[in-house]
Amino acid sequence: MHPVDTLGRPIRDLRISVTDRCNFRCAYCMPKTVFGQDYRFMDRKELLTFEELERVARVFAGLGVEKIRLTGGEPLLRKELEHLVERLATIEGLDLTLTTNASLLAKKAAALREAGLRRINVSLDSLDDATFMAMNDVQFPVTRVLDGIQAAADTGLAVKVNAVVKRGVNDAGVVDMARYFRGTGHTLRFIEYMDVGTTNGWRLDDVVPAAEIVERIDAAFPLEPIDRAYRGEVAERYRYVDGEGEIGVIASVSKPFCGDCTRARISAEGKLYTCLFAARGTDLRALLRGGATDDELHDAIAVVWARRADRYSEIRTERTSERTRVEMSYIGG
Ligand code: SAM
Ligand code: SF4
Ligand code: SF4
To answer: In what order do the strands lie in the sheet with 246-250?
Structure first.
């Protein structure tokens, strides 16, 4: 029996954070100055091992999970990540993907593809170097991300490109991005800037609503809506009327989709979270390292899921963004 939560939602997607470290300092995620201090990262022994992760993934698959996304932090910073991909790719019927800032993708793409990865999401917020460098805050140039995308595509990985849009920072470039990726086969998706974590100083005024993004692109390259591919898909999809591909918008703030949210997340140290905005997780590592059987793990996760009542984005206000919660780089975006 697959569990459903208190709002009738099944568990279909699992996001696994494989590291809390990152080599970028995107201001909307891991701003450089957090209360004047640098980040304190987990020790290696705190991280779930690949063996533990495979075990957990198989248990989740048994609970109804059909899709796993590897994320972080920057997942490609986890040493020999391809070995984890190799293990997870053997789970039958599982759609496996990975989200990366692409800084190491040119080096890693072939090994990931060989290990069994079929698709990948690359984050790129602007094609303008000055804007992008200001956003990643480590002077990382656009060309190296584009090289990573090319290397991934060359090895046969399907690529989606994700851009977080922040008003007054990179919103002037959305039409340029659409122009660049039209006709490449890489779907471009725009994500509304969210109040994740507690360090990015989020304000509602910084959010560019998805409808406005669609309007701007539609004025340059006419679009028409298309159906979502499956229940729980977060992106609203549009295709170019001239047949040059499609874009997606993720309207987590202006049009929340909690009602269909079928996602669970595990942090790199093995805590299970049932919402991106949760304050507390359940310690799966303690169970794993304490000798729990697969059935015991299964039951423990099923109990957590059955109690789930999360719908943060539907009840969000400027005030709720002051609540305690974990950082996105920790929980996995
Ligand atoms: N480091 C990888 C990357 O950037 O692709 C994976 C982890 S990152 C936390 C996952 C995704 O979350 C990225 O696409 C990033 O742009 C997005 N993200 C981070 N902070 C966000 C925020 N405040 N609002 C919306 N999306 C955010
Ligand atoms: Fe790193 Fe990704 Fe967060 Fe940027 S969004 S700081 S690349 S984890
Ligand atoms: Fe899912 Fe929580 Fe986001 Fe709502 S706010 S869509 S419940 S992760």
So the answer is: 223-226, 236-240, 246-250, 187-192, 158-165, 119-123, 95-100, 67-71, 13-17, 263-266, 271-273, 282-283
Ligand 1 centroid distance, CA of 51 (Å): 26
Is residue 28 within 8 A of residue 193, CB to CB? The reply is: yes
Nearest CA to 265 out of 77, 64, 13 is that of 13
CA-based nearest residue to 100, from 115, 114, 82 = 82
**pTM for the complete prediction?**
0.95
Q: Among all ligands shown, which has an atom nearest to the Cα of 140?
A: 2
Residue 189 bridge partners (DSSP)? 162, 248
Return the ligand number nearest the Cα of 232.
3
Structure tokens at 129: 């170097």
Q: What is the pLDDT of residues 277-310, one digit of tens each?
A: 888 999 999 999 999 999 999 999 999 999 999 9
Distance 23 CA to ligand 2 centre (A): 8
- Hey, what CATH class is 13-331 in? alpha beta
Q: Which residues partner with 221 through β-bridges?
A: none
Domain definitions of the chain by residue range = 13-331
